[in-house]
Design brief:
The structure holds 2 protein chains of 2 kinds.
Chain A: E1 18-23, E2 35-41, E3 44-51, H1 59-65, H2 68-76, H3 83-98, H4 104-133, H5 137-157, E4 166-167, E5 170-171, H6 179-202, H7 205-211, H8 219-224, H9 230-234, H10 241-244, H11 270-294, E6 314-322, E7 325-333, E8 341-345, H12 347-352, H13 355-359, H14 364-374, H15 378-382
Antiparallel strand pairs in A: 1-2, 2-3, 4-5, 6-7, 7-8
Helix pairs in contact in A: 2-3, 3-4, 4-5, 4-11, 4-14, 5-6, 6-11, 11-14
Chain B: H1 3-14, E1 18-22, E2 30-33, H2 38-47, E3 55-63, E4 67-75, E5 82-90, E6 95-97, H3 105-117, E7 120-122, E8 150-151, E9 154-155
Parallel strand pairs in B: 2-5, 6-7
Antiparallel strand pairs in B: 1-2, 3-4, 4-5, 8-9
Classes of the chains: A alpha+beta, B alpha/beta.
Amino acid sequence: MGEKRKIELDYSQLDSERMRLNVGPQHPSTHGVLRLEVELDGEIVTDVIPHVGYLHRCFEKHCEKMEYPMVTPYIDRLDYISSMNNEWPFIMGVEQMMGIKVPEKVEYLRVIVSELNRIANHQIAIATFGLDAGAFTPLLWLFRDREMILAILEKLSGGRLLYNYFRVGGMAADIYPTFKEDVLAAISQVRKTNPEILNLLLLNKIFIDRTASVGILPADVAINYGCTGPMLRGSGVPYDLRRTEPYSIYDRFDFEVQIGKGEVGTVGDCWDRNIVRYREIEQSCNIIEQAINQMPMEGDVKEAFPKKVRPPKGEIYCKAENPKGELGFYIVSDGKNNPERVKCRSTSFVNLSVLPEISKGYMFADLIMILGSIDIVLGEVDR
Amino acid sequence: MQAQEIFDKLKEKFNDDILELKADAPSDPIILINGAELFNIAQFMRDKEELDFDYLVDLISLDLGDNLGAIYIFYSMKHKHRIALKAIVPKDNPILPTLENLWRTADWLEREAWDLMGIKFEGHHNLIRILNPYDWEGHPLRKDYVTPEFYHGMKVPY
């Protein structure tokens, strides 16, 4: 339209070596709606700028407008892969403020459902990471096992991914008659598939070539960036809230905190982060097995429900070990039915901030692997 | 190290800038400090051998009516102790020094606090919005925030 616009370029000002590339927001390898502004020198990544916020719905503002029990379904939607683990710290924080002690049976049930959900989360993490590397079969195998776990959680709570199962003082529903058998069957299935995944994917020569010594995250950098969960443990720091500051009844179980040792490459590379996830699946199986054998099968899970959820004036920071890392809720109450302020320390948000640091100097294809190894869920990053 | 010992250690060094220790269980112990000295206090906490707070857990911004508050939670991987610092700044001039040169986590956490609560962090290399669109107006977590009717011609309230 109109006269043709003439563009005059001063070529001496152009840096012909560098290229800016947008990855996402609609791209399968970004695991959700994440946009990465990548600066490339040929195929080498020289800078990455993550742009987040595409799923932002101001969860924290919503919480201020709602009563405490109404917040739980929203928390499910933060990290929708591991909803059970998400609900726990919030509910635990409210219980600590109100001074509620939940029955033994509830504590065990919480441990079991959370560890089941941890297994499901790590299965997805490994499966989709394999998919990033081009391995399709492990995804199908792991989803088959995950289905058994989701079936148990569905029978308990009614939801397949978004459970709304935790309540202040107890659980929404009691266990069903064949719960113990189902859980033991699911564990034995997971234990059967796990070595196969190790041979099929994690010890595969091609997979090792893609992931060993890629995206190395040294321990001090990881701590400085606030990374937690398999990200931090993959770098060789044995920081696990279940062990360092045991909450609930985690001090009763015998399990090992897994750390990356650099078996095929350097400590803190993509492979280490995934082998930590893989070994945590085994440890979770051990915890569930101990818990299901110690758990009292009789008893009422709704026994300690308060008449009205109204914590006294005060504030608390309550944290728990999410599959992805430390998830914390800072709750400020001024004695009303709805919280004055809720701040979510979102694991994926903090873990993602390290991406520019660890992806510089690698090939562009490695950037996709590094992003996959962080295991983010954009629902939690953007809140 | 217990919260009281940490408080005494900081009080010894910074005297009047350390105001009070609030430690009523089940809440975590919080030390109220003078916001202007935040950077020096934080640097002392990170570098001092006995304190060694190498992990900034979280930064929480609060709307306290006429003031805004910022709570920093610290943890030490070596000594396995934790403490929180709280600084209060006036709402009409909410400025705090940045901690991004001490803990890189603070980069995104401070951008989030600026975006949602409007606390300015002096010295931050790139203090732009992170969760909201870059040209959004207002700070949604403030109690007096009013949702704009339109954003680029699109109706906002649903």
